[in-house]
Amino acid sequence: MNAENKNHLSLIIWIIALIAIGGIIGSLTKPEISTWYSALNRSNLTPPNYVFPVAWTILYGIIGTCGWLIWRSQAFPKLRIIKTLYVAQLILNWSWTPLFFHYHLTGLSLVVLGLMDILVATIIWLAYKKMRAASLLMIPYLSWILFASYLNFYIWRYN
Q1: DSSP per residue, 27-54
Q2: Rounded distance, CA 72 to CA 50, Å?
Q3: I need a labelling partner for 141 at 20 to 30 A (CA). Which of 6, 126, 131, 151 fits?
Q4: What is the DSSP letter of 74?
Q5: Residues 41-66, buried b or exposed e (16+ Cβ, 10 A)?
Q6: pTM of the complete model
Q7: Cα(82)–Cα(9) distance, rounded to whole angstroms?
Q8: How much is the pLDDT for 3?
Q9: In 128-144, which positions are buried (b, 16+ CB within 10 angstroms) versus exposed (e)?
Q10: CA separation (Å) from 79 to 19, 88, 99?
């Protein structure tokens, strides 16, 4: 297998891994969606439930692509910080679902989202000059988690 094929294969692995992990974590929410979540006061801007798995599949594909771009980037002074922020936001991302849906900790979930917002915005800012594609690809993710922060805030505030 030549180097180009190995690169494509590693990209596919990053994308599939992130989508799979996100899908597994997301599947754990199913029992809570029709019970606890459906009984909550939610914003009028809350999308229908079917939008979330579609949006997150796309976003995890983007997040996987960004991780691949970050890890194959040539060394530069802020790369280690960007990698650390990427891993930290991913851990926070994966922790949000059980905190919100399983433990019903809407306030702590909101804090987690706020931290994610800051970390992802920082990645975008730090990566822009050296890894413009990764930086720009993170913008839809940041937009979605900012919206999720609003939705989480609404639930925390009105329930």
Answers
A1: HTTHHHHTTTGGGS---TTPPPTTHHHH
A2: 34
A3: 6
A4: P
A5: eeeeebeeeeebeeebeebbbbbbbb
A6: 0.95
A7: 23
A8: 72
A9: eebbeebbebbeebbeb
A10: 24, 14, 30
